């Protein structure tokens, strides 16, 4: 008996250990995404194109690292460090396959507020060079990077705390209009901060509420102090950058290696600055010496953390929001998923760990990668031009105003008001204002948001039979919306709709096919429509069509309309008919405009019966076409 009990106990312990091992493995895969994608990396197919892209983007990051370090009011070499370490950390913990962290204009501008407040520019000049400090830099420069590193450290701690609190689930409050307005307003701030370099003016650091307007007031009051040489060089740099980047964009499919115009322009400007002695002949500001090497790690100054709380919160929120928008956009485009909460952890660690290596706050941006180079002297007006042109993608978001006006005028109003608050105060203030406005509007419109009405779903299913005996049946599933479709319930609406179709397909699928593929490929965003390496064959006896009855859709916003368009595109890729019935004129216009569906007007019908009749007619026309071919 004792031996039997011992054997049973051993079996129990083995099961417990195997359960814990499986649980731990799942946790590691979830928190360390690199363990999931690295073993599956196809060296033969991806190594060469990834290497070429990495080299080109690394060259671009050198120039942006220098420029954004100046924007952060620290020595340019620290921008190069900020291009290397955050990218490595995010590659391990991040889920965005097409984004990489590095120096970022918005976070650099926020950290500059703390740097200029705690270590103001007094008798020290930006080009001061001394052998007394780390890397041969002066104590003044080390004090400045100490403040920026403290902002990065505390901002990362805040992001990690948000990860622990599972606040990633609250990101649905960050609607597209709010993010677009905030980033556009922040980009306007960045451009404004570079005006003094573009014009070659000497001006004090101006920040705080309404600082945007004070800067331009100072410029107009001292317009006579503009250096013509700096202005001409800035205009020439901007024109060259814009033209070459547009040409690269036009011919990117024909040429595999794009021209690194940023680096070419800096090299050309450096030679011109050196041989023409522009610093002394024309009085232009130059960056100066860039030291070699990487410093030994050092903990950020903890005694100033309480003084940089405001900037740290700004870095944590603005950096995360801008990064998440890019990650979600690329995930949507390339059909994979991103865990909003995991991104908090990835960006938090990408700020905390690099802060020990004198890095400025970082965030993700498309086309960013790691790079560490040593270089010679650079003109600051050229670097300012690179910053301005690099923000083109954010600045042209003004075009979204027309889109929001045509889809939902309330979203248009939120965009405008959020932008105004951002330029009048700060990016984090504008972001908070936009979220509060969005919530207030929803509360005023309706007390609570539900999603699909599934109570009588089984009574609203039809079989459209053709006249030919033995012809396949076509199922029509009708789903009605009895509440508004807005950002609060749009995600759940999409999930419920997908789950409904998945369950129906699972019920209609033969048992053998279910064993082969347990999950409907419509919901498997990480796959390309395959299961176990094979292309799934559609069930031969039945095809599903979905009619969405919008008679109860009282109002909608841009997020809700975007969700409808996404559902339509998902169903279309799976050869599932998706029709909209009882649509209002405003909803029809919004869907067509948002999804560019002007040519697909046949998806809208005046009633459910009209949509069913159209399905029946299309079935007969298809049958007639098949007989004609025979």
Automatic annotation (TrEMBL):
GO terms for cellular component: apical plasma membrane; basolateral plasma membrane; lateral plasma membrane; recycling endosome membrane. Residues 466-615 form the STAS domain. It catalyses: bromide(in) = bromide(out); sulfate(in) = sulfate(out); nitrate(in) = nitrate(out); iodide(out) = iodide(in). GO terms for biological process: carboxylic acid transmembrane transport; iodide transport; oxalate transport; sulfate transmembrane transport. It is found in: Apical cell membrane; Basolateral cell membrane; Lateral cell membrane; Recycling endosome membrane. The chain crosses the membrane at residues 66-93, 145-165, 203-220, 226-245, 257-277, 308-327, 381-398, 418-444. It is a multi-pass membrane protein. SUPFAM superfamilies: SpoIIaa-like. The keyword Ligase does not apply. Belongs to the SLC26A/SulP transporter (TC 2.A.53) family. This is Anion exchange transporter.
